Amino acid sequence: MSEKTAEYVRIADESTRAVLRYEAETEKDGWVLKVEKQSPEGPIRSYTKQIPGNANVCMKAVGIVNAAVDATFGIISDLPRRHELDPGYTSVTVVQRIDATHAVTHSTFAGALGGLISPRDFVVACYCGPVEGGGFSIGGSSCVHPDKPPQKGYVRGENFPCAWIVRPVAENKCRVVYIAHADIKGMVPRSMVNKAVVSMSTEFFGRINHLLTGRPLPPPQPAPDEVSATERGEDS
Q: Which CATH number is 3-230's, of 3.40.50.720, 1.20.1250.20, 3.30.70.2470, 3.30.530.20?
């Protein structure tokens, strides 16, 4: 394994250790409950925390999915279907496959607000596989890869440790923890990004339960407030 490839593995593994730590933490550790929404499967709770040394808020959403852990993780880890869980994704591809559980991925996201927010892309050193205590995780942190330099038409964002963690609760029930932590760069107000991430987290559980059980999708959540002219700046 080359030194650069070993660095991708190190980034992915360190990221996995971080998200498992976030998963285990509670409100006593600084997580603030922002949204609690009832669903047929049980409550969906979204928390935020300011990670020391990072100005971008980290979001953690926790909920139940009424399906076996293998089926649930199968959909979450199916990269071509990622847009079904989050319509903001326009593509997710593997840039470099390292081994059975490590890879470098490239994801693109659509622009928003009629072009005020430019399309984004991310390059991530990713771990996808079993985790201690039972269950699976897929996630990682940003890295630099020679095959995916910044590209025209996209603002290159930065992912901090983020993941989906799926653990069995019963034969056909599992607990999913979704951790999102990123800097999307550009001139988008941070408050707007934080609001959008929390809103999207609850929609994720409705979408995955719909895909696995056929339950109708809940109505879409209200969009975040549109930024004022003075907040817009020049997103680039």
A: 3.30.530.20
